[in-house]
Design brief:
Strand content of chain A: 5-15%
Number of helices of chain B: 5
Shape of chain A: globular
Mean pLDDT of chain B: 80
Structural class of chain B: mainly alpha
Largest sheet of chain A: 2 strands, antiparallel
Largest sheet of chain B: none
Helix content of chain A: 55-70%
Distance between the termini of chain B: 42 Å
Radius of gyration of chain A: 11 Å
Strand order of the largest sheet of chain A: 1-2
Low-confidence stretches of chain B: none
Order of helices and strands of chain A: EHHHHHE
Number of strands of chain B: 0
Largest interface: A-B, 13 and 11 residues
Number of strands of chain A: 2
Oligomer: heterodimer
Helix content of chain B: over 70%
Order of helices and strands of chain B: HHHHH
Low-confidence stretches of chain A: none
Amino acid sequence: MKNRLRVLRAERDWSQADLAQRLEVSRQSVNAIETGKFDPSLPLAFKLARLFEMPIEAIFSDEN
Amino acid sequence: MKNQAPNELKGIRALLRQFRERIGELKRGLSPLQRQTLKRLWLIVMVMSSAGCVFTTTDKGGNGTKVHATFYTLLMAISIFAILITLGRYLAQETDEFIRLIVVKALLWGVAFSTAVDAILNTVQVWCGDASLMPGLQMWSNFYFFLMGSMLSLALQIRRSR
């Protein structure tokens, strides 16, 4: 699954650690999601959507 | 030659300092739950190791009493259960799903590693045809292999996701 997390984070000038703190997860989790090594669960995806104030499909997109 | 020794000592000291700093960094990066779990694991492993040492020095070359052997067996079994319960509780309480995933992966690698070591040593034992040539693999030594494999895998996965 592709995501725009890195871009959205850069737009807000947040570091991976900043985003991790806001999401209450580890920095490794943010890094793994950004690099596509790990797909977040629905609760975490909703949390991201709420944080960036946009729908989930604007952050994540299916590669197919 | 005289100058070499202080230089080597300096090198060792620098390595030790780096090691201490690295451990410090790792400790700072741990959550309270992870720190608590590690403390518990260390405590259990230390009790297990101490009990192992006491048993091997007091069992008179495998001729200890039944009570002695039963006590030791129970202690080992309880330690293994305690480790599994500690890991289970950690997994249940860990809120970070990615960390949970890599810990589960590490535990699976630990199982694979200990099974592989067990299979290799047993094959060599059968191949030698003389069990005395190879150290016997006991359940608790298997568990050390499991912990070693898990920790190694965890370290590699954390390094990969830095």
